[in-house]
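Sample intake sheet
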Amino acid sequence: MATAHRKIELQSPDDLTYLLTNLQSRATALLAQNFPPHDALHAAVSSALQSYISTLYALARPNLAINGVDVHDAWALDSYEPFDAKLAERVMAAAAEVEAETLRVAQMRREVAACAAGRVGGALVAGVRALEIGEGVVEGGEEVVGGLERQAEVEGTWEEAVGVLKGVKVDLPATAAKLERAKAAVEYVESR
């Protein structure tokens, strides 16, 4: 029956570096102690020892974890830093502060919009009542006259503009169809 074994947990990449450095230095010391440095056998044993250490690391790598993160490649060792509880606490506090400020800004947006709408609505209601009565409305120290001197001309221009827009609304689909046909004709001529 196959059982899953726990990975070897290291706290930082420095731990793995420390282990590899100690292994390398101990192997080098034993090699120097047992074989003369300029011996041909020394070079062969040194090469075999380096190969053995590389193979050992390659086989151990899938069973290592640094702060719970698997060690995939040798270059990845530098990309992890030790877990810092104080730093994690500061990050959580900053995130909570950002959330609180976001909520405060959202609340201010609702309050300001409601306040502005109330003020504008009140001013509009007062202005409409004053116009209905025929009185002027006092706005910022100036009185606004209730009716326009050219009221009939403005209403006539308004009615004329509305009529033109209704005509455009009717003629617009036909114009769009003509444009599409002209575009198709241009494409046909350009393709030949």
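Comment: The chain has a mean pLDDT of 79. Residues 85-133 form the longest helix (49 residues).
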